[in-house]
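User: Here's a structure from my thesis project, written as structure tokens. My advisor, Dr. K., wants to see whether a designed sequence matches the one we expressed. Can you design one independently, without my sequence as a hint?
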């Protein structure tokens, strides 16, 4: 085993042993973060016809408001994640978003619900920007697509659980109880973060000297952060990758938020069946697609440094016509067939694209790079998409509004 300066063999062995535990904990927390994020999608029709009397634009803005806060605070936590204790920052984030989700159940008006959902973004920004950086120091580069695939497998599983849990609890106990069920468990998960190790930055990068976290003055943090952002903006492969990821995120965000309502209004499926059926498609295709994409990305990377990006591009090209057919066919059977194919192709990119982002930047700037990518993909992606689709639906119909999704998929490819 390669020994780093100032690091004993016993310490490195403990890092290796803790890597699997860290991946398990972070993946499990990631699952709950997406359950919290998408539980509101299962409650759209109940919220629309509740005492809050929300319009489609109001409903779409709940996701957009969350994402605005999420993207604005992500750069702050990205800078802190490269300089402070990552497990402690993650613990703060998990506790913050869980508390905000539970508070959503007490909302008495649109504005209070909007404020609670937007506050979820603060906690998730702390977690999502820092966790991949921590994982990159648990595992070597040759395993990162698979590691990112395992970590991001929690996205479809958590999203699906948001639909399923939200739909079932809403049906039996009401929409307020659904927020309580989604939020409270996260408060317990935050405690697990204090059991995670925080190895030096670059500990798993061959040939690179690992860097321990430092605690510079606030003025130094600001100066160094702006310098890091400037370097990233001049990193052409990184910039192009993030822009493509933004279009991809626009499409996935629009589908994730509006599909249960689309199935109920356009396909005539009952509310509980709509959430459960779409959630089932997401969890199966998301898990299989993300896992296969991570394994395939690492396998192809043995032969080409461009493998992660080529795999993502080809899979997304194939997904575009599948999404169009799923949204326009009159047959429910064909809808299921095309939607399964589309989701499989879209989720195939999850592991490779995130591994590519990590590998395109230096070890000391990974949390900052992830934060900047989070900012970009959401500002250009799923911040505008739920609101835009909702506004187009108010102007015409939901069946027409969702047709912008396959266009975004094609742009991403």
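Assistant: Designed independently from the structure alone:
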């Amino acid at each position: 085993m390669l020994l780093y300066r100032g690091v004993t063999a016993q310490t490195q062995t403990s890092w290796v042993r803790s890597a699997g535990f860290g991946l398990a904990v972070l993946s499990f927390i990631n699952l709950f973060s997406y359950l919290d994020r998408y539980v509101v999608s299962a409650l759209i029709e109940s919220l629309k016809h509740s005492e809050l009397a929300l319009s489609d634009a109001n409903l779409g803005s709940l996701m957009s408001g969350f994402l605005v806060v999420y993207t604005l605070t992500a750069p702050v936590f990205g800078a802190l994640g490269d300089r402070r204790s990552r497990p402690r920052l993650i613990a703060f984030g998990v506790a913050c978003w869980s508390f905000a989700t539970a508070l959503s159940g007490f909302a008495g008006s649109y504005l209070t619900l909007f404020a609670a959902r937007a506050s979820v973004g603060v906690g998730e920004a702390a977690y999502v920007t820092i966790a991949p950086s921590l994982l990159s120091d648990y595992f070597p580069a040759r395993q990162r697509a698979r590691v990112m695939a395992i970590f991001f497998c929690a996205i479809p599983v958590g999203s699906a659980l948001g639909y399923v849990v939200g739909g079932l609890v809403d049906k039996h106990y009401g929409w307020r109880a659904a927020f309580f069920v989604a939020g409270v468990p996260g408060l317990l998960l935050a405690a697990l973060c204090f059991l995670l190790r925080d190895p030096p930055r670059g500990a798993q990068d061959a040939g690179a000297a690992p860097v321990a976290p430092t605690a510079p003055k606030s003025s130094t943090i600001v100066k160094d952060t702006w310098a890091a952002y400037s370097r990233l903006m001049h990193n052409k492969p990184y910039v192009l990758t993030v822009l493509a990821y933004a279009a991809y995120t626009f499409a996935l965000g629009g589908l994730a938020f509006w599909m249960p309502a689309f199935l109920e209004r356009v396909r005539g499926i009952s509310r509980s069946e709509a959430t459960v059926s779409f959630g089932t498609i997401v969890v199966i295709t998301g898990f299989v697609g993300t896992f296969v994409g991570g394994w395939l990305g690492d396998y192809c990377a043995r032969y080409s440094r461009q493998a992660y990006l080529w795999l993502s591009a080809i899979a997304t090209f194939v997904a575009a016509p599948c999404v169009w057919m799923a949204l326009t066919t009159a047959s429910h059977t064909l809808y299921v067939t095309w939607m399964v194919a589309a989701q499989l192709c879209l989720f195939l990119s999850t592991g490779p694209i995130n591994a590519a982002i990590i590998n395109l930047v230096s070890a000391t700037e990974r949390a900052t790079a992830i934060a900047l990518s989070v900012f970009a993909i959401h500002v250009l992606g799923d911040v505008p998409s739920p609101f835009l689709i909702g506004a187009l639906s108010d102007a015409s119909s939901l069946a027409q509004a969702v047709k912008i999704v396959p266009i975004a998929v094609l742009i991403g490819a």
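When you compare it with your expressed construct, this may help: Confidence is low (pLDDT under 50) at residues 1-7.
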